Amino acid sequence: MRIWRPYLRSLLTWATIATALSLSSASPTLVQAAEFDKFGFTSVSADLTSDEAGAHPDFTTVLVTKTDPNSPAVFGEHFPYAALRDVAVELPPGLVGNLNAVDQCSNIEFVLQKTGDGQCPFSSQVGVSEVRLLGSNPGVFGKSPIFNLETTDEDGVARFGFMVLTVPVFINVRLRSDSDYGVTAEVENLAAATPVLEVKTTLWGVPAASSHDNLRFTPQEVFETKQESLPRSAEHSLEPFLSNPTSCGTPLFVGFAADSYQEPGRFVEAAAPLGSITDCGALDFSPAFDLSALTRESATPTGAAATLTIPQHEGFDEKITSHLRDAIVRLPEGMTISPSAANGLAACSEEQVGLRVSPPRSAHCPEASKIGSAEIDSPSLSRPIKGAVYQRTPEPGHQTRAWLVADELGVHLKIAGEFQLDPQTGQVTSLFLDTPQLPLRELKLHFKDGPDGVLATPRRCGTYQADYTLRPWSGGAEAQGQIPMTFDQNCDTGAFSPVFKAGTADPRAGAFSTLVTTFSQASGEQNLSRLSVTMPPGVLAKLKGVGVCSDGSAADGSCPASSLVGKSTVATGFGPDPLWIPQPGKTPTAVYLGGPYEGAPYSLVVDTPAEAGPFDLGDVVVRVALQIDPTTTQVTAVSDPLPQIIEGIPIAYRDVRVELDRPGFALNPTSCDPMAVSGTATSIEGASAPLSSRFQVGGCKRLSFKPELKLSLKGEMQRSGDPALSAKLKMPKHGANVAWTRVTLPPGVQIDNAHINNPCTRVQFNAHACPKKSILGRATARSPLLDEPLKGPVYFRSNGGERELPDIVADLHGPIHVILVGYIDSKKKRLRSTFAQVPDAPVGSFKIDLFGGRRGLLENNRDLCRRPSHAAVQFNAHNGKIADSSPLVTVRCGKKSR
């Protein structure tokens, strides 16, 4: 009969309540929705039996629901404004439990306890819950043991259970991986028919302590009010279950949140002060750290293995070890991020990793963003858990960042880290700051190895030092140390022996074709700093119709599309699989035609968007001055110093290619002689290496060569007169270019010695300071490669005594500068001028006008109007063809020309 008394008492109580409700229609009750918004707490409180850092106190929370004074009274107590549904209690960070200190009770055993058919072991009890219900005698609590239950990952890191009357209540314990990694205890779906007035919960710091023996009982014993067996031992070793935070000085609070069945999802919140933790200086913190590269080779991609060990004090009568706050590891100088690591690399965003997602969930990072693995051993967990290291989504100025992720045993760990890179040297500093206040026994990290390894070893062999700093949350002394790392294989000898190739895709003489230059070198050699490349004579570019990028636009690569003339390709990194830029799907590279630069008339603007994997380091712009030899029109491309490091990521140049592929831009010579593209490569350490690549085109014989020269004299045709001379050359399109020409004037035309007493010296010529009297006339050249003609004076210039007479020099200016030098002599008393070095460049027309009269170079020794005069003209083409002629010299006699 005594067994049924509690049930009868409960039934009678609820019958009384139901009758009171039915008779009090005028009073506001639980069915009056207008009052539901008053649901909340009358008071909340929290208490620790010790405030010493790392101690093992009992932890008690109390919450009292707000009741409606206008509702019916039952044993002097009023109804709550709404029925309590869900409750969440947020513990401050660092107040954590050790589940290994107690046994587990199966869920089946726990549920069957209400009938007496099951029994949770007393070694699984972690505390006591006291719940005061409406209808119970005032001041009397229904005590119930709290047991540690079996869990799944969905339940959280832990699961506790207790009984309210005969109803099982489950408490799921989760880590707040969405914020501060404190512990939150959540009770969901309390029994709706049981109005809860007050809940008091106590978790024990050391569950097996004898001080708790009077509170070890079963729910059945509580229900039957039979506790004859007390005191009762836990039959478990004395191990601490609950531990205080290891950080002092900051006031702590316990947060409470609850909603009701009448308004589910509308949570009311409150906070209870918990005081401050003291005596952090008494905590031990003696970590050990080890780091090693996964290879001993120099100048090669590699992974790394790191192990952090923190000895834990886990005795019931000793304080725990301080939690780790900051881990700072500086890799040796010369050990850098490997560019090859970006091959196929993806990134994991905050959304994908599940940061600040409530409730916490597993990460869904792309597999391609994984750069390492992790194993975490904590005293709070039943076993070590596996995790991974992922590349975080880069941000400007913070490219190399990481997530340390673990999603096992209900833990959803998402720790943000960063690899800071020295902008000058690329030295890597790993930073994991303000890590969660959780106990850590051991952390193992293994970073990706192989050709796409995340790191690159130093280029020179030797023993280097890594150093680390580990800081505790206690504020005590930090741990510091150095770790030697030796690299003694595949040692760099300081070589700099680049391979150079250059040529055109279509090697037909006089044809437009893509021009390609390629520089490459082996892994680990001295890094390339700058290049100077000289094209063979006749390898030119058609500038006509091509836009020119201004200096302002060239600075950031924002050149107009009209100036686009080609593209570039760069391979960087160590080992057999360097990183190629541009990568598929990324912004293409571009080579633009730029304006004057470093004294050269034109330049190339090589724009390389530094995009690889998830990284975008912006545009890398290198200017290349295009110097043009005024005598041969040979082009020498001289680059600026190449960037060696971008945002701390070094560039180890393995392959540099430039392709000038604009249609109708790069032009082959009309000479089929064997030639070479030559140049010089300079390393960052000052080493110099000559460059040479054989170059030869074919099909020269198919090119026609039909120059047409017209000569005319005007002015003083009489004997001793000084006539003006005009020579006009026309060249057909798509033929061979003039290489050498000689014009022999008719008999009777000679040099007027009286007019050659003031030639320009070479020094004056080079200084652009020739005397006015040295100017003999003017010349104009028009080329299909240029938008504008070349124009300039014709000088009488001394040749330093190499020949009897001064030279005749056409100094042509315009888009480029060209100097044509002719030497003057005579044969068989006939005056002749020879231009022995004419550039292999297409010319549509060339005109030279020499003054007559007082400034004239020529003088007649007979009357040129008496009979026709012929000149002798010889032309040699660059393709070897010859065109000789004897054109009639047109003279103007009176009003007629003949």
Overall description:
Strand 44 and strand 45 (688-695) form a beta hairpin. The protein starts with a helix and ends with a strand. 5% of the residues lie in helices and 42% in strands. The chain contains 6 helices and 61 strands. It has 4 domains: 2-275, no CATH class; 286-487, Immunoglobulin-like (Sandwich), CATH 2.60.40; 512-522 and 549-570 and 590-695, no CATH class; 702-897, Immunoglobulin-like (Sandwich), CATH 2.60.40. With 898 residues, it is mainly β. Mean pLDDT is 90; it is low at 1-34. It is rod-shaped, with a radius of gyration of 46 Å.
Question: What is the strand and helix layout of this fold?
Answer:
Layout: H1 5-23, E1 41-48, E2 59-65, E3 73-74, E4 77-78, E5 84-90, E6 96-97, H2 107-112, E7 125-133, E8 142-149, E9 158-164, E10 167-175, E11 183-187, E12 196-203, H3 219-223, E13 242-243, E14 252-260, E15 268-275, E16 288-293, E17 301-302, E18 304-309, E19 324-330, E20 336-337, H4 350-353, E21 370-377, E22 385-391, E23 401-408, E24 411-421, E25 428-432, E26 442-447, E27 455-456, E28 462-472, E29 479-487, E30 499-504, E31 515-520, E32 528-534, E33 540-541, H5 551-556, E34 564-572, E35 579-581, E36 590-594, E37 602-612, E38 615-628, E39 635-639, E40 645-646, E41 649-650, E42 653-660, E43 666-667, E44 675-683, E45 688-695, E46 708-714, E47 724-730, E48 738-744, E49 749-751, H6 762-766, E50 775-782, E51 790-797, E52 807-812, E53 818-827, E54 830-835, E55 845-850, E56 858-860, E57 869-870, E58 872-877, E59 882-885, E60 888-893, E61 896-897
Parallel strand pairs: 46-60
Antiparallel strand pairs: 1-2, 2-12, 3-4, 5-11, 5-14, 6-13, 7-8, 7-12, 8-9, 9-10, 10-11, 14-15, 16-18, 17-27, 18-26, 19-25, 19-28, 20-27, 21-22, 21-26, 22-23, 23-24, 24-25, 28-29, 30-31, 31-42, 32-39, 32-44, 33-43, 34-35, 34-36, 34-42, 36-37, 37-38, 38-39, 40-41, 44-45, 46-47, 47-55, 48-54, ...
